[in-house]
Write a structure and sequence with these properties.
There is one protein chain. Among the domains are: about 140 residues, Dipeptide-binding Protein, Domain 1 (Dipeptide-binding Protein, domain 1, Alpha-Beta Complex); about 220 residues, Roll (Dipeptide-binding Protein, domain 3), CATH 3.10.105.10. Helices cover about 30% and strands about 20% of the residues. The longest helix has 18 residues. The protein is globular and about 70 Å long. It starts with a helix and ends with a strand.
Length: about 550
């Protein structure tokens, strides 16, 4: 189907284009189908095993968490747990579960009971215990769970009764409740897991997902679509949309064209160049908000010569970030100097960015014994993201800047899923990447992206930077309940990042989304999620 549509674009055939659109949107008479033009393939459909917002958003329609972020905010509210208590020492959490919550079914499974404590225990234990029968079935390693230090944080997870779960921590953890609301802590069906295990097909838990969310998984065709249908027994109420389609469309120009043609109703991340046209189109609605994000270039600090801070600082001072932001973000971004966005509490605005100074960069290279320059590889993202609208263009500008101080770059990329895997494996020397905050806490940037726990194969610290003084600060901040004390620790940590320069922070962006006018109830989310519960189409 996607090939037909592309052929229509190339050939300019409105007939083929219209046929493709009709086939994509085909549904029973009177049924409502909403099509979302997404930016890439999800690396998996179970949020437990993904690390990109693309994967998280593909899983979101199907699942719920114990606690969740209120739509469009970072405020915690009840999810599958209707209430909870926390012990005075901050180590014991007791959750009281909702009644009347049903799981989805599929051709292999029909649930015989409501969601209960067994499902919550199963979902966490599967990620935690390496000897759990579902820990290794899909070949994934629960990277988010590990990067947040959950294996060492958890002391016990107990079923008290059908409606009560107790989680005991080894030490207090300030962002723990917010972390439970993150996508990797969705609740799966233990009964479905038992069914699959008895069939000898446990891996289907990740490829044929079963959740409690507003939409049921229907099908996934790589590079084409993910399809869902409304869950008739959803505890939050049956959705107005009958069918939800994620139309996988990596090119932002193609997404925009499909939106204009009515082939999709919501699109992610329009190109900055298209934003004025969207704003002026009476058939479309432009949505925007300042992003909780950062786009950056990571330098592999375990690989010479980038194991030398002088070389990393030289690279930082040789890149004209202002020119990149002007050319690529086109008024929808600001130059970054810290690894967290200025909209996030504890941002250290007292830090002065490294100046754009080629002469100083050349002196640093000479001090490091690299006066004649050297060669390196720079990987760039193959998909557009809010924090990086055009990875190839940014890579080309960095390549030109660094060539002026003798650093000769080879540009490389891969398909999005493979790109992410190679970055987490430590393959690139230099790599463009970025992050959108998952829970509104600085820990989600500083500990997850730059802490020692995540500086492992499979971790999100793709710079492989493990600095003990920095790690001590961000770890201490996790264990501290007092907000002012946490802010002071995070500000000190940002000073160390600035001095050691494992990244070149490039930009914080404004995030844009676009919808057709007939879409109602769609709300932009500060955490980069695309929630489709409560969304409808006007006649």
């Amino acid at each position: 189907m996607f090939r037909l549509w592309i052929e229509a674009r190339v050939a300019g055939s409105t007939l083929l284009r219209g046929l493709a659109a009709v086939l994509l949107l085909a549904a029973p008479a009177g049924a409502k189908t909403l099509v979302f033009c997404s930016e890439g393939n999800p690396e998996a459909l179970n949020p437990q095993i993904v690390t990109t917002t693309t994967g998280m958003n593909a899983g979101r329609p199907m699942f719920n968490n114990l606690v969740e972020f209120r739509k469009g905010s970072t405020t915690i509210e009840p999810g599958l747990a209707e209430s909870w208590t926390i012990s005075p020492d901050g180590r014991e959490y007791v959750f009281r579960l909702r009644t009347g919550v049903r799981f989805h079914g599929n051709a292999l499974f029909r649930p015989t009971r409501e969601m209960n404590a067994d499902d919550v225990v199963f979902s966490l234990m599967r990620q935690w215990k390496e000897d759990h029968p579902f820990h290794k079935v899909s070949g994934f390693s629960f990277d988010f769970f590990r990067d947040l230090g959950m294996p060492d944080l958890l002391q016990s997870i107990d079923r008290i009764d059908d409606r009560t779960v107790r989680i005991v921590l080894t030490k207090p953890e300030a962002p723990f409740l917010a972390n439970l609301a993150m996508p990797f802590n969705v609740v799966l069906s233990a009964e479905y897991a038992d069914t699959l295990l008895a069939m000898g097909k446990p891996e289907l838990i990740d490829t044929q997902p079963i959740g409690t969310g507003p939409f049921v998984f229907d099908s996934f065709q790589k590079d084409v679509t993910v399809r869902y249908r409304a869950f008739e027994e959803y505890w939050g109420g049956r959705q107005a949309i009958d069918t939800l389609v994620f139309s996988i469309t990596p090119n932002p120009a193609v997404r925009y064209t499909k939106l204009k043609a009515g082939e999709c109703h919501v699109m992610a991340f329009p190109s900055p160049a298209d934003v004025p046209r969207i704003a002026q189109d009476p058939a479309l609605t432009l949505l925007q908000q300042e992003g909780l994000n950062v786009g950056y270039m990571a330098m592999n600090t375990t690989r010479p010569p980038f194991d030398d801070a002088r070389v990393r600082l030289a690279a930082s001072m040789a890149i004209d970030k202002a020119a990149i932001v002007a050319a690529v973000y086109q008024g929808a971004g600001k130059v970054a100097k810290n690894p967290i966005p200025p909209t996030l509490w504890s941002y250290n605005d007292a830090i002065a960015d490294h100046p754009f100074d080629r002469a100083a960069a050349l002196r640093l290279l000479a001090e490091a014994g690299k006066a004649d320059g050297f060669e390196a590889d720079l990987w760039y993202m193959p998909v557009s993201r809010a924090y990086n609208p055009n990875g190839k263009r940014i890579a080309e500008m960095i390549q030109a800047d660094l060539a002026r101080i003798g650093i000769r770059l080879r540009l490389e990329t891969r398909e999005w899923g493979e790109y992410r895997r190679e970055l987490q494996a430590g393959t690139p020397t230099l790599a463009l990447y970025g992050w959108t905050g998952d829970n509104g806490d600085p820990d989600n940037f500083l500990y997850v992206l730059l802490g020692c726990t995540a500086a492992r194969v499979g971790g999100n610290n793709i710079a492989r930077w493990c600095n003990e003084p920095f790690d001590a600060l961000v770890t201490s901040a996790k264990r501290t309940a007092d907000r002012a004390a946490r802010e002071a620790l995070y500000r000190q940590a940002q000073e160390i990042v600035h001095a050691q320069a494992p990244w070149v922070p490039i930009a914080h962006s404004v995030v844009f989304m676009a919808t057709r006018k007939e879409v109602t109830g769609f709300v932009m989310d500060p955490l980069g999620r695309h929630p489709f519960d409560g969304v409808d189409l006007k006649p």
